[in-house]
Design brief:
two-stranded antiparallel sheet; 2 helices; about 120 residues; Ubiquitin-like (UB roll); 4-stranded mixed beta sheet; globular; single chain
């Protein structure tokens, strides 16, 4: 794997069954090793500067089925079985908006209200 100058590699997360792209995140070597060992998607937060397991606050874990790498070996594709919505804003995918007629339109139905879920799991 080819990590960037910050020691990170981008990761596209896709639903194994539906093939829907759920999110884009980053891993460092430690996050990759934890993902392989636990079979739970684990990433590196660039803003918080720490490792995090997807679902550790919401309960919406992502069970890893397969890990692929692109031809340049600088991007990963992780196929998962999600245990709930991927987006912290309450949508199934982080890609819930599309550009149409000069503006961004929400085209997905919200699955939960984030404040309610995060308060419940803290």
């Amino acid at each position: 794997m080819k990590f960037n100058k910050d020691g990170l590699i981008p990761v596209i997360v896709q639903d194994y069954d539906t093939k829907k792209v759920l999110m884009l995140a980053y891993m460092n070597e430690e996050a990759f090793e934890k993902t392989v060992k636990t079979k739970r998607a684990t990433f590196f937060s660039r803003s918080r500067k720490k490792i995090w397991i997807k679902g550790e606050e919401s309960g919406n874990f992502q069970e890893v089925v397969e890990i692929q790498i692109d031809c340049d070996e600088d991007t990963l594709l992780i196929l998962v079985k999600p245990k709930g919505p991927a987006c912290h804003e309450g949508y199934e995918s982080c890609f819930f908006r599309k550009y149409e007629n000069g503006k961004w339109i929400i085209f997905e139905e919200k699955k939960f209200e984030p404040d309610e879920v995060y308060k419940k799991n803290r």
